[in-house]
Write a structure and sequence with these properties.
This protein is mainly α and 130 residues long. Helix 2 (18-36) packs antiparallel against helix 3 (44-66), helix 2 (18-36) runs parallel beside helix 5 (81-107) and helix 3 packs antiparallel against helix 5 (81-107). Helices cover 68% and strands 0% of the residues.
């Protein structure tokens, strides 16, 4: 099955524009990677960084598959400015939101809990029992 036919089938089945599909694929790969790597990597920052690498790899693979016909016949040097511009646009659409979420979660405290857990009752010190 050709990737172009598959991609157009997904676009027609979902009713989404091509740009929106790139955004959904990028954020889905990022979140799914975070969930699936949770048992492997306990530290969130490591998991998030590896998820970014996976999103970028999937985006690059998608752009290669989009331009495979031109690359295999003429070589990568014969890609025109229009194809390169479209590929960069698609890469940004696929990766940008994942990179923004990574930045917010790792470098800010926006998604961190602001309340500390406090016990319902105060426990007496062991020395208080006479």
């Amino acid at each position: 099955m050709d990737f172009y036919i598959f991609k157009n089938g997904v676009i027609s089945a979902t009713g989404l524009e091509k740009d929106a599909l790139h955004i959904y694929v990028g954020i889905s790969v990022y979140l799914l990677s975070l969930i699936l790597m949770r048992p492997i990597f306990k530290k969130y920052s490591v998991r998030a960084f590896i998820a970014l690498i996976m999103v970028t790899a999937i985006a690059l693979l998608g752009e290669y598959l989009d331009n495979r016909h031109t690359i295999t016949e003429l070589g990568i040097s014969d890609l025109g400015p229009a194809e390169i511009k479209a590929s960069i646009h698609d890469l940004i659409n696929t990766c940008l939101l994942s990179y923004i979420l990574y930045g917010f979660t790792v470098w800010t405290k926006i998604f961190q809990s602001i309340n500390t857990v406090k016990p319902m009752i105060k426990r007496q010190k062991k020395t208080d029992y006479s």
